Amino acid sequence: GDTQTGEDGDTQTGGTSTDTTADNAEAGAADLNQNMTTQSNQQPVVTGSWVGYFSALLTKYDGEGANLTDVYTNSSRVNFSADEVSGSSIVTADGFISATDTRQDGTAYIKRIKTVAGGLFDSGDLGTTRPMDNSDNTSGWPTNDQLGSNAYMEWGFWRMSSWVPGVGSTPAYAITDRAYYVGGEVTPDAAAAGIVGSYAGPAWGTYYNGWGGYDMIGTFSCNVNVPAGTVSSFNLSVSGIEGPTASIANGSGTFVGSSGEFKITGGTWVLNEGSPLSPIEKSLNGSLYGPNGEHIGGAWAMRYVNSAAVGIFVGDKGGTATPPAAYPPPLPPPPDPNGAVAP
What's this model's pTM, rounded to 2 decimal places? Predict the structure, then answer.
């Protein structure tokens, strides 16, 4: 369905609902007590061999249905080899999600979930109790899925395998739709400084539905001019078998300082699940990869009230806008959260 309401009440679309952003925002701000909860532009640019981005959609199950509760991505690149990485809510600065054990070839875990957008909730430190690789946990859930790689990069998705109990006996929270990641060896500043050229390649995304998501694939392309500090003609378009689409047309952005990291802010952003929507909140961050900027990649997220999508893009310098050969493998519905919230 296409029903939309304002931020002062719950909304319904396609049989799912979303909580509002205003509730409990003031209370949530008081509990923002860790530096890792924000991804400000004042942070130093992270470098390394396993550095990148992720984006995720948060679901709350209220006993009756799945609610789009929050949308996260990291607004600057993070070191996946670190003990903990975090991404900010694009809906409110007071929300964030963090993960641990995001090193390559291992099991990643959601470490902490905080949302204000869907009503104040803070999971606290979950340690390694909420895996995003459930091969030894719940039958039918996928392990960490790698969608592709090259000599300097790897990209794929995560999804939680169990719910986090909320307050009381009913609500539960989880990343039930695909959370995408892309990372690798970022281009050194000295090499990035002189790079000018075009990049293109495949893109992936998931449109929220709370029970695995509508998977989307497509392409992206852009022009890069690091000496001028600009990215232009950024175009990304993904679509799904089920119908939803997400796109960015003629986007533009700038590089962060003297690094090969950039942010896209301009352009026409559209979510479409039966009718076009202009996202209220949006974020796209990426980087050049490889010792001489051979590749590019990043993560994106966008939301309009009760519609949202997240995803990634990757490409090669001088490459072509070729879509992935196939959709990611289908995901089964998440397990019944009622069992996860029992005392």
Answer: 0.84
